[in-house]
Amino acid sequence: MASVELQKVGKSFGKVEAVRDVSLVIQDREFVVFVGPSGCGKSTLLRMIAGLEEISTGEVLIGGQPMSRVAAADRGIAMVFQSYALYPHMTVRENMGFALKMLGTPKAEVDRKVLEAVSILQLEDLLDRRPKELSGGQRQRVAIGRAIVRAPGVFLFDEPLSNLDAGLRAQMRVEIARLHKQLETTMIYVTHDQVEAMTLADRIVILNKGRIEQQGPPLELYEEPANQFVAGFLGQPRMNFISCVARRSAAGTELVLPNDETLLLTMRDEPALPLAAPVTLGIRPDSIGVVEEAAGNTVPARIVVVEQLGNSSLLYARINDNPDLVTIEQPGKSVLKADHTIHLRLDPGRAHLFDKNGDRIRA
Amino acid sequence: MQAGRNHLATIVFASLILAFSGGPVLLSLIGSLVPDRILLDSSKSLFAEGLNFEGYRYVFTGELPASYLAENANRAMISDAARQVPYSLVNSGIIALSSMILNLLLGAPAAFVFARYVFPGKKVSFLFLILSPLVPAIALITPIYIMLQSFGLVGTRTGIILVHTAKALPFTVLILSVFFRKMPAELFEAAVLDHCSRFQTFVRIALPLALPSIGATGLFAFMLSYSEFMFSMILSGDADTRPVSVVMAALARNTDVSWSLLNTAIFIAIVPTLVLVVLVWRFVVEGLLSGAVKG
């Protein structure tokens, strides 16, 4: 059991700053997911906590103790690598017991702890196999088992599921969630997969270019993104961003397209909204309704592509000559075809507005 | 049609390669089993007198072939050097094996450090290591001779072993460092987290995984030493320390040599290497292949 605290942590490789000024407190037993696009510094941050990467500035504390002079092996952490990093020449049993063996733990105790971990992960039948003889999912389980055997205060996962196929990934996701409940240990998990982040995390930390963009519970980030980056990063399909201009009318605040003044939506007065300045309207594909007949609050659009996903359909439509396509998600099978003209109803209650710096404009 | 022509070409080239590589071995085997009087007489068919083991008998027991016991026979054709072949094989075996073991003992850790760690002077020292084989060996003979003489190692197997080790070491380090570098870094990070020191990481993780490549590199060092002639000749003393390459040269230098005897000596010198190569190569290739195929 341990908390992890990052105090103004930074890391540079030569002139490249991979992590800048990151401060973060991770509570004991919390499941925190670092998520972000590739190259955002999330893996570097994790490796700094593990002690595999030197820290350029700042300090990492685990269980309240500063770690700058503590070797990676003595930090009370265990890491699960993306490539599993199992020792190919050792059996599952030897792989899992290796750390304890190197510490000089008596053999009987090593065996007992390995068997304990094996029963948690249902690996009993594989004990004497080598990694080569295991499937990807089994290898990942062994890698997690190797971490469990060390009884760490903090589990670190570095994109553990990205080498698995989609079906297995879903299965292992549930498994990891179950493990967190059962082991009641702090877990820090790095991924670029937002589904993993949304489903596993107590708290998500979204990183971009080495900085924290926003952190908080998954649904809070989804519903209240602090900026355009977070809004665009979480949610699948991605949120639509439409450049527009705000103007005030008798009905409230109206958002129109900048070139031809097509009215997109009308919302209650938004005092924080700068008038006549360019703003970005962000609206998720499931917050756009499609109607056959034009009405006062609809926008005409022409369908460019229809994607049938089985349980839902994605329509890509163009409003007038606006270069950016709008994505609309509809439940079930869509009867609409390309080149149809439809009318979009944008839900003002679920619209997000961002200023020219990408920061959210709050009501 | 195309496939048929390809097939034909494969057979032709394979036969050519076999003729070039296996032909000489076969010729020396035949030559060793046929006495001189038939080898040198074109009017007689090769196996007119059947197989003859007199050459082998002389090499191993010193018993002269019957034909050379005759009054008018030219005994000078029977070179004493042929009698040294069996013991020179022992010498070569000791020298080549020692050189191979020393190469691996020194080369594998060095290669591991070069491949996995950063230290001051790494680039320069690696560059020197790679460039050192470019120095013509002949330029080094005098300094090395004087140096070994001052240590009293001229005329000993130890001297030859040291020189052969030094000659093969750059290749050993270069080849093994490539193998160590190809191993995934995460494996060694996992070892660090599992409380392994650098030495333990090397012994417990890197070495077992590199075993096939270490076998191949060791074999390479063995063969370099086994076939090396110049330093062997200059540094070896009497018959007690002479390796097989030197003895073979002494035998072949004699223009009047008995062809049958020369062939016998050649065949005896080739066979141990052949056996070793076939045995070790099998292990090495299997190891390399099993490592190359991703699970």
What are its keywords?
heterodimer; A: 363 residues; alpha+beta; Rossmann fold; OB fold (Dihydrolipoamide Acetyltransferase, E2P); 2 domains; 20 strands; 24% helix; 34% strand; elongated; B: 295 residues; mainly alpha; 12 helices; 0% strand; globular
Notes on the protein architecture:
The complex is a heterodimer of chains A (363) and B (295). Chain A contains eight helices and 20 strands. Chain A has a six-stranded mixed beta sheet with strand order 6-7-8-3-9-10, with helices on both faces. A five-stranded antiparallel beta sheet of chain A has the order 13-12-11-14-20. Chain A folds into two domains: 4-233, P-loop containing nucleotide triphosphate hydrolases (Rossmann fold), CATH 3.40.50; 240-354, Beta Barrel (OB fold (Dihydrolipoamide Acetyltransferase, E2P)), CATH 2.40.50.140. Chain A is elongated and about 80 Å long. Chain A is of the alpha+beta class. In chain A, helix 2 packs across helix 3 (107-121) and helix 2 runs parallel beside helix 4 (136-149). Chain B is an all-alpha fold and 295 residues long. The longest helix of chain B has 34 residues, at 259-292. The two termini of chain B are 38 Å apart. Chains A and B meet through strand 6 and helix 2 of A and helix 8 and helix 9 of B.
Biggest sheet of chain A: strands, sense, closure?
Answer: 6 strands, mixed
Q: Hey, roughly how much beta strand do the residues of chain B contain?
A: under 5%
CATH class of the largest domain in chain A: Alpha Beta
Work out the radius of gyration of chain A: 25 Å
- Residues in helices of chain A, as a percent range: 10-25%
Arithmetic mean pLDDT of chain B? 85
Detail the poorly predicted runs of chain A: none
Structural class of chain A: alpha+beta
Please indicate the count of domains of chain A. 2
Helicity range of chain B: over 70%
CATH architecture of the largest domain in chain A: 3-Layer(aba) Sandwich
- Which ranges of chain B are low-confidence, i.e. pLDDT below 50, for 5 or more consecutive residues? none
